[in-house]
Amino acid sequence: MEWWIWLIIGLAIVAIVAVLVIASRQRRARLQDQFGSEYDRTVVDADSRRQAEGDLRGRLKRHRELELRPLAPDAAEKYSQEWLVIQARFVDAPDEACTRGERLLEQVLRDRGYPVHEDFDTQADLVSVDHPELVGDYRRAHEMLHSQNDGDRRLDELRAVFLVHRDLFSDLLDNGVERGVEHDDETDLPQSTPQDAPTRDDVRR
Q: pTM for the complete prediction?
C-alpha cells in the first residue's frame, strides 16, 4: 500500500478521535451546566467519572418519561395555606412540624408527577433534574430528619431541615402553577427568640 494511503488513514483516525473527544467534552459540559454541584457530588460518589455521567444521563432519560404537570392555582393556594399552618407549629413542636412539612412536600411532588412511592434516593435523583441547586440540601435534610440526635443539636438540625423543605416547596409552587398564582411572601420560619432563626448554612454543617 502506498505511503500516502497510510497517511490518509492515519489522519482520518486522528480526526475521528478528535471528534469523539470534542463530543465527549460537550456532553460533559452540558451535564455540568444541568446539574451544577450535583454533578460534582455524583462524581465523588461514583467509581469513575464515566459511571457518574452515565448515572446523570440515566436520570435525564427517566425524567423525560415522567408526566410532569403544573398545579392548578386553587391547589397551589391550598398547599400554601397548609404550609403556613405547619410553619406556625415549628416553635412549639419542631419535630412534628418537620415531619408534616416533609409529608406535604411529598404530596406536592406527587401531584406534580414525581414518583414519590419509590425510595428516597430515586426520588431525589429525579428532583435533581429540575432543582439541582436544592437537591444536595434536600438529601442532607432527609438524613437529619431521620437521625437519632437529640438536644440542642437536634433542634439545630430541625431548623435546617425546615428551611430546606420550605425552599423546595416554594420552588415547586412558584415554578409549577398553571397561569401563576399569588402566594404569601411572609414565609419566614416563626421565631420565638432571635436564636430560632436558622440560615441555609446550618444544613451544610
A: 0.74
